[in-house]
C-alpha cells in the first residue's frame, strides 16, 4: 500500500478532482453537466467511490496487518528552528503581560511571528486528520 506522502502533486489533484466531480457534477434539464452544490448522493455511493479512487492509486492495504507506528506522523522538517524559538519567546512575553494585566501592541515582526503560529496550528490540525477534533476549535466563534 502506498502512503499519501508518496503521491505526486498531479495524483493528488486528480484524486480531489474526481471526488469533487462525483459529489457535485449534476445534469440540468437539458442533460448538460453542471456544478450542483445541492446534488444529492448517498453515503454508500460516496464510500464506494472513495474506495475505488483509493484502489486506483494503490492506497488500499493488500492484506490485514497491524498498523505500525503512529498512524499520522508529524513532519517537523519544514519548521524553522530560529523562528520557532522567537515565536515561543513571544508567546512567553505575551503570557507574562497578560498575567500582569498589561496591554500589548504587536510590531510588524511580532505580527509575522503570530501569523506563523496560526499557520503552524492549522498545519498540525491538518496533519492530525482531526484525530482530536481540533478543527472545531479553529472555526470562527458565533
Describe the protein in words.
This protein is mainly α and 142 residues long. It has 2 domains: 4-56, no CATH class; 81-138, no CATH class. Helix content is 51%, strand content 4%. It is built from 5 helices and 2 strands, in the order αββαααα. It has a two-stranded antiparallel sheet with strand order 1-2. Strand 1 and strand 2 form a beta hairpin. Helix 1 runs antiparallel to helix 2 (43-56). The chain is elongated. It starts with 8 loop residues before the first helix and ends with a helix.
Strand sequence of the main sheet, in spatial order? Answer: 1-2
Order of helices and strands: HEEHHHH
**Count, helices:** 5
**Rg from C-alpha positions?**
22 Å
Q: Summarize the main sheet.
A: 2 strands, antiparallel
**How far do the termini sit from each other?**
42 Å
Structural class by helix and strand composition: mainly alpha
State the share of residues found in helices, binned by percent.
40-55%
Domains counted in the coordinates: how many? 2
Number of strands: 2
Oligomer status: single chain
Task: List low-confidence stretches.
Answer: 70-74
Shape: elongated
Residues in β-strands, percent: under 5%
What is the residue-mean pLDDT, rounded to a whole number? 81
What is the gist of this entry?
The chain has 142 residues and is mainly α. It has helices at residues 9-24, 43-56, 81-99, 108-127, 135-138, and strands at 25-27, 33-35.
Looking at this protein, list some descriptive labels.
142 residues, mainly alpha, 2 domains, two-stranded antiparallel sheet, 5 helices, 51% helix
